[in-house]
Design goal:
By secondary structure, the chain is of the alpha/beta class. It folds into two domains: about 160 residues, Spore Coat Polysaccharide Biosynthesis Protein SpsA, Chain A, CATH 3.90.550.10; about 100 residues, no CATH class. Helix content is about 45%, strand content about 20%. The protein is built from ten helices and eleven strands. Strands 1, 2, 3, 4, 5, 6, 7, 8 and 11 form a nine-stranded mixed sheet that branches. The protein is globular, with a radius of gyration of 25 Å. It starts with a strand and ends with a helix. About 30% of the residues are buried. The C terminus is likely disordered.
């Protein structure tokens, strides 16, 4: 049994060859491109992928559109970004779980690769994402800068093997550009979560690891000085410093990202308060020729 592959791209000429080589076992690879201006499309087509074009709005709509429009040959679809790689051991597990057909979708962890090493501790490994699902069952919705699945927990299994994630292959500048956009989406999502305080706490007691992680994220977003505490947690509690110099660099990058979210949340709140003040009715100025109650009272006192 084989499975189809859907890959999202935008100016990924550096990453797409490695990604496509890692799924060369599939006879149905579709690239959904967001209007690349480099050689991404030409490379993908030369390596045998079918390429569809759609302007990017968000990850969830892009994946859902691909599921609806690609005409996949197989019932199971693996969802990838161009900077991700499927190791051989994961391919074997993918074939095994799709033959069993126990769940409608599967979550998997990602191993973050940075400065030629796996950032095991500082990257909060394992953090899971649903990336494999039945073509007619799995759909996505946006949450922050990422996507969530539309399926109940009991219909989602977990893979033991991990994707390799080469998030920094296009350079630090590209990472900052992406995370500038991501932090804007996270700020909006964080403010939305603050309006639903009850949901954040209950998730801490969930049996599902992904739900617990999202609940912890919701709770931590309310902490004062959270970039500082994020660094302490990653560097010392999670022992990210044991990832070496690369781990320290990664911890500092995430702190910067967290601080960007904090500043953008503050900016959004200030804008909302300013809009609320502008919508309030303004009091009418007093008529200087009309005696005020205080003046009448003073006159009566005389």
């Amino acid at each position: 049994m084989s499975l189809s592959v859907l890959i999202l791209t935008f100016n990924e000429e550096m990453n797409i060859p490695r990604c496509l080589r890692s799924v060369a076992w599939s006879d149905d690879v579709v690239v959904v491109d967001s209007g690349s201006t480099d050689h991404t499309v030409e490379i993908a087509e030369a390596m045998g992928a079918r390429v569809l074009q759609r302007p990017f709005d968000d990850f969830a709509h892009q994946r859902n559109w691909g599921l609806d429009q690609a005409g996949f040959r197989h019932s199971w679809v693996l969802h990838l970004d161009a900077d991700e790689v499927v190791p051989p051991e994961m391919h074997e597990e993918l074939l095994a779980v799709t033959r069993e057909d126990r769940f409608a979708a599967y979550r998997m962890s990602l191993k973050l690769m940075f400065q030629d090493r796996w950032i095991r501790r500082a990257s909060m490994f394992p953090a899971y994402q649903v990336r494999l699902g039945l073509r007619d069952r799995l759909r996505f919705r946006m949450e922050g800068h990422g996507q969530r699945e539309n399926l109940p927990i009991e219909e989602v299994g977990t893979l033991e093997t991990s994707l390799l994630h080469y998030s920094f292959e296009k350079g630090i500048t590209d990472w900052f550009e992406k995370h500038n956009r991501y932090s804007s989406a996270e700020a909006v999502e964080s403010l939305r979560r603050r309006e639903q305080p009850g949901q954040s706490l209950w998730g801490l007691f969930s049996l599902d690891r992904g739900t617990r992680w999202r609940a912890l994220k919701n709770v931590s977003s309310r902490l004062p000085f959270r970039p500082f505490f994020r660094f302490l947690y990653m560097a010392f509690v999670r022992r990210g410093l044991l990832d070496g110099v690369a781990g320290l660099h990664y911890c500092l990058l995430v702190v910067i990202y967290e601080y960007m979210i904090v500043l953008k949340e503050k900016e959004l709140r200030q804008r909302a308060q300013a809009e609320n003040r502008s919508e309030m009715p303004h009091p009418q100025p007093a008529n200087p020729h009309r005696p005020t109650e205080l003046a009448l009272t003073a006159g009566e006192a005389k």
